């Protein structure tokens, strides 16, 4: 008796992502990078713009773990945007246990990505006004530098929204086009 394996379902690839969407997806990882690197500098023990008194709260192990975790999660979240323009956004890579090799249902990518785009846009909407808020625990130059490092985050939500819309358009059902 021979054992035949069930063939993997044939996945018809969507149209390639437009060049602007690929660029926008890669740009998301870069807009998150300055603030993530700044937090890592804090973890390494440098005040990075904080006054001596303001920096004391960042010297605890809990604060360091939180800042490293936040930096890694931000970069990972930004990196997932690239999946919306790459083949692994259409078929789960085979090395992933249980679901590897399966087709990604478009709405399983679109809904979380669109929700993330809205959340990120709202979260970072006030960053352009950074310098209008008091930052008594920072030095004057630190306030300028940190505000500048956080400004790119304003682009994260809109970039993710644009790439998500591109993904949706390329993967929508032919019946609805």
TrEMBL record:
Parts of the chain that traverse the membrane: 20-45, 65-85, 106-129, 149-168
Top-level division of the source organism's lineage: Bacteria
Keywords, comma-separated and alphabetical: Membrane, Transmembrane, Transmembrane helix
Protein name: Uncharacterized protein
Organism: Streptomyces cellostaticus
